[in-house]
Amino acid sequence: MRARDLAVDYETVSVDSDAMDAARLMADHKLPGLLVLDEHGEPMAILPASQMIKILVPAYVIEDPTLAAVVDEKHADRLCQALAGRRVGDCLSGKADPPPIADPDDTALEVAALMARVRSPLVAVATKDKAGTHLLGVITASHLLHELLGAEGMSSPM
Questions:
Q1: Model pTM?
Q2: Contact by Cβ (8 Å): 4, 111
Q3: What are the angstrom distances between the C-alpha of 137 and each of 31, 56, 108, 134?
């Protein structure tokens, strides 16, 4: 099976998209992350859901997790305010790498190796030419795992 066969339509956002809308998109569709496109519509980065959660949690709680137990529910309900007025680009890690991009002709194993090497929950599948990068779709880790397990003829023990 080739990357083009595994690629599916997937939600994308731009660097200028509203961060709260992006978080809602991830939550509503239970996505592990979003593919972020630049101003030309080319894959620029992956915004993992874990990064959005990190933005919601106050730095003092990350530094001292025991403080999380003393934050009351009323205050915890206001955590999402950390996203108010922010763009997706503001939420990307300062060291955000370009997203992994598989060639449409890559095998499932090549995609798996790429995903494992960069530890990404998704891989973009795109063609590249002089005009730029043209997104065909995305392969998520869970979809790839499902396909690889199916290829092995494995079935659920339940």
A1: 0.81
A2: no
A3: 15, 29, 14, 9
